[in-house]
Amino acid sequence: MSDLDISVVICVYTEDRWEDILAAVSSVRAQSHPAMETLLAVDHNPALLDRLAKEYKEAGDVRVLANAGPRGLSAGRNTGIAASRGEVIAFLDDDAVAERDWLRRFAEGYADPRVMAVGGRTMPIWASGRRPAWFPEEFDWVVGCTYKGLPPGLVRVRNVLGGNASFRRTAFDAAGGFATGIGRDGDKRPLGCEETELCIRLTRARPDAILLIDDRAVIHHRVPEAREHFGYFRTRAYAEGLSKALVARSVGAEKGLESERRYATRVLPAGVVRGLRDALLVRPGGAGRAGAIVAGVLTAAGGYVVGSVRARHGGGTFSVVEIEGGSHD
Question: Is 59 helix (H, G, I), strand (E, B) or coil?
């Protein structure tokens, strides 16, 4: 699939990440499988929009767009999809850099026409220079990274993870775009799960669809210092519970929580046992990791209960957007 045209969408929202944004674009430009184009979708920030437009004014391979929908990551992604021209649309976080073969691995995944999405592996770059001793690898999704418990290699999955993912354009034709009202909105409560909801919706619209993760499609994602603390860990776990409740309400708990059941019944108990064993062997952080896993599970479960009650009473809704525009060659 060396001739596959891939558009890359990077959603941006703050000038605080200026250097990160430039680094993300540079990493796309250095790909062994060249991107057809890079689209920067700016989330309701006129100053950043103007600054990026000036920065890439002479660049034929970078386009700067204003988010055409409501504030938030989902609408930014939908703006990028609608403006893109590639047969495949890849998404990269604005505070991440892709390894050189990132797009090449994605392209290889689409050799089978039934493949509708390919995701990759996201590695943390800790602001402090190292993983906090108490932070369990099983919860790396809290900081937007690949977590312990995902199977290695090239594997079929229920959903890809949004900061390092790609979709065939026809996936959006079949299922619509990312749901607004469910994902992140700048620095507000760190909700998520919009890619989970989209992937479940996609496999319902196209039951033959195959979704893959290739752990050789690697990006490195910056984890700011504020996210290395237990307070953020707890907030993010609670928000995940809220989001999962919305998704389960939309697609049914069986599908909405299918992967989570295996994670909660196998991966997490094993993590607790490992943490306690490390504590007995006087290895640093063992008891903290075991405690963090238990606290994370309880906090996410609390969020799920609150979110379920809200959803039943009509609070917390989201809407699916049809994607218009773009090239449908």
Answer: coil
